[in-house]
Each structure stands twice: as C-alpha cells, then as structure tokens.
Amino acid sequence: MLDPIITMNAGGVIQSASDSVTQVFGWTPTELLGRNVKVLIPEPRRSALDRYLDRYRKAEPSKPQYRTSQFNARRKDGSMLRIELSVSKVDLPAQSSCYFIGIVRDISRHIDTSANGAAERTRLQQFVTEQTRALATATLRLHLADRLASIGSLAAGLGHDLNNVLLPVRARLNAIEHSGLPASGLKHLAAIRQSISYLQHLSDGFHFLALDPDAESADAESGGATDLHRWWDQVGELLRRALPKRVSLRVSIPATLPLVAMSSHWLTQAMLNLIINAGESITPRRKGRVRIWAELSDDGIAVRLAITDNGCGMTRGVLRRAFDLFFTTKSRSLGTGLGLPLARKIALRAGGDVELSSTPGGGTTATVVLQVAARPGQNSKRANSPRTLAAVSLTNVRTSAMISQVLVRRGFDVSAAARSGPRNASIWVTNPSPRLLPLARAWRKRVALGSLVLLGAPPVRFASAWAPLAPTIVDSPDDLEAVLHIVRELTPSPNAPRPRGARSRS
What is the pTM (predicted TM-score) of this model? Predict the structure, then answer.
C-alpha cells in the first residue's frame, strides 16, 4: 500500500504498521510496534486523542464508525507534515475490546502545490497590474509626444507664413520710403519698421525651433558652430516671450566669447526648455527675475551659458530626478517632464552637458556647458599633445557619465576601469567595494601620487584597510553637486597631480 495503514488497540497502542509508514513518517514498522499512536500526533490534537478514542469505543456495534479528518502530524525527525486520517472501528467476535484501523494520506505535497499555485496567481495578477499601468504610462507618453510633434509642426508653419508675409511688407515699406513722404510720415514708417523687425525675430526663432535636431549633426566637426552673441540677437525676442510678463529678464552674453560647438537650432531648443522652466518656477505673487549669462571656463575649452532664476528652487530629491524622462512636479496639464531631459540630451550630443544647482526657496541655476569650437589646425595639435589618464568605475551609470564629462572637459582621457584595476590612471573614481581593495593596493603601488575617490564611506570593518591608500571619501554620494565639486578640486591640471592625503567630504 502506498498510504500507511496502522492498526491500534482500544487504548491507541500500535499493533501493526505497513511498510509505507517509513516513507511518510520515517519510522520503521518494527519501531512503531507497542508505541502509542500519540508519538505521531503533536499538540493540541495529542491531548484530545484519548477523548476521541473513548467516544469511538462507546459507539454502538451496529453502527460502524468511520472518521476522516485533516491535521498536522510529526515525523520521527520532529518535522511536521499535513495528513488526512481515515479511522474505522473493528469489533472482533469473542473479544470485549475493539480495534481501530487508520489509513494515512500525506497531503503536504498537495497543499504545497496549491500554495504555489496561489502564489503564482498572485504574481501573475501583480504582473498584469504592472503591465496595465506601464501601458497606460506608454499611452500617456505617446500622447505627449504627439502634442510635441503638433507644436513643432505649428512652429514650422508659423515661421514659414511669417516670412512669406514679411517679405512683401518690407518691399512695400521700401517703396513708400522713396515716394517722397514728409518727415512726419517717415517717423511713422520707422515705427512700422521696428514692429516688422520684431516679427522677423519671431520668425527666425520659429525657424530655429522647428528644425529637426536629428536631421543634422550638432558637433563642431560638421560645422555646427554658433556665435552666442549673434544667436541671441536672432532668437532673443522669441525666448523672451517664453517668460511670463511679470518676470524681468537680464541678459549678459559678451560679444568676445569664442564660437561654441553647437548648431543654432539645437541651442534654441535647449534654451527654450530651460527658460520655460525658469519662468514656471516663479510663483505669481513673487516679483520674478531671470538672468541669462555666459562666460568662458577657466581652462578656456568650454563656455558656460547659464539661466539663473529666483523661483521656488528644488529639493535634493527633486534635483536627483530632474533629468529623468517624464518626471515633473507640475500637473500633467502643465508639464510633460521632457524639458530638462531634452536639453541635456542636446548638450550631450554636442559634447557638452547641463548642470543644475538649486536650493529650496533660493532659486535655480541651469548651466549649459558648451565646448569651444575647434579652430583650423587645433585638432591635430591636440592629438599630438600628451593626455593624462583617468578611470571611472561606478555602479550608478548617471553619476559615472557626469564625472566622466567633467574629467574629459579638463583634458583627461577617461576610460572604465578594467577587471584588473585602472592600470596607470592618475585618477580613479569608484565605489568602496571590499572586492576592490586588492586592485586599489596594486594601483597605489604603480601610481603613488594618484587621486583615489570613493563615493560613499567604506564599511566600518574595512575602513582601516582603505585608510593607507589615502582616498578622498565622499560621504554623500547621492549629492551630485558635492561629488562634481570634489572631482574638479582634485584635477586643477592634468599634469599636476595632488599629493597623497586622505580626506573626507560630505
């Protein structure tokens, strides 16, 4: 028999057991003979067993007793299993006491299978819910993308129509000017020309905004160089209109700045998004101020074009997610969450970046870092000059990309650290993983004056092991502004590595 069969006397003492009892309970039939069946039954049913047997014994002989129940039983090793027990009473002729026959079925596997099935159903329900939510989000994103495409088409049409209207208007104004108007008429004509000039600025702005960024390359090698001072003269009127009327705008873009390696239409798209964000961050009750300014970096290889506002600012949590697609603190009717990611994508494709600094209630500064456009012969000269190596190996991809950009702008050749370590890099930015300790020791022997930067404090039990390597420790690796500040501080020049010395920054 596959299911164990156990016979007991009226007191519950086991008289016989089938061989299958070993597979289910771990006892051999011989070991169970003479033992009370209570050895297989744990509390609380064990204490009630005598009462059950007494009730069975008192039943009338003419009414056979069959009982089936489910409960937990105990194996020889003490582990528990779920069984189904069928008990029947047997009255033998010429004997005053009865016997009981129990048939045991192990239903643990069935219960486990049912539990697994329930868990699988729950998992599938959660999966369906998540996929439904993801589908709704994707639908919303498609709707937003469709709206943006419609806006682009509208901008292209407006720019084209304005040019078609303005051309004959300017021609007729020229004709009127030479038709012998009196001085009073010429004064009115000048005012009309001023309005026409404003409309022409708007038309040029729409033209830059409507161009497809993917249709042309934006880097300096393809000729995508822009004079910032002249660019603002062309698109300034359009970008001013992106701010609410209550917000004043001050612009400081020197004419002496070098050309930057970004096409004008790319720059217009990036700055429009940043200007709109600056205006919307200022509450209606506050007198808003926005300043657009530009300066050449200290090393002369980049131009920083920035927008500073006196708006509500951002918390650290919002600042960390500011570049995430479709993340917005505004209602869906007012914001898409695409402005900052789009601006940063444009900057990165042109070899630059977008940096944010903000404090709650203290305003925000969004800085577009633009590479200076290469002059004739500059690329070959740079290719022949020696460059210092830097290695970045971080688990956070976004932080790794940002730090790599800073190091590249400061003249370093940046690469990901190999499995055997960063070789001869003079700067190594990494996480304080204990598995990297042997690699860090080997690297320190090769590069005694190298700068080791750990994003996050090492575990306490490994802190003493890292200390001899003189790392600069960033206590708050999520604070990207602090991390970038430390990286810049460690690299004043590729040819001037800092002396060794452990420091900790938070």
Answer: 0.38
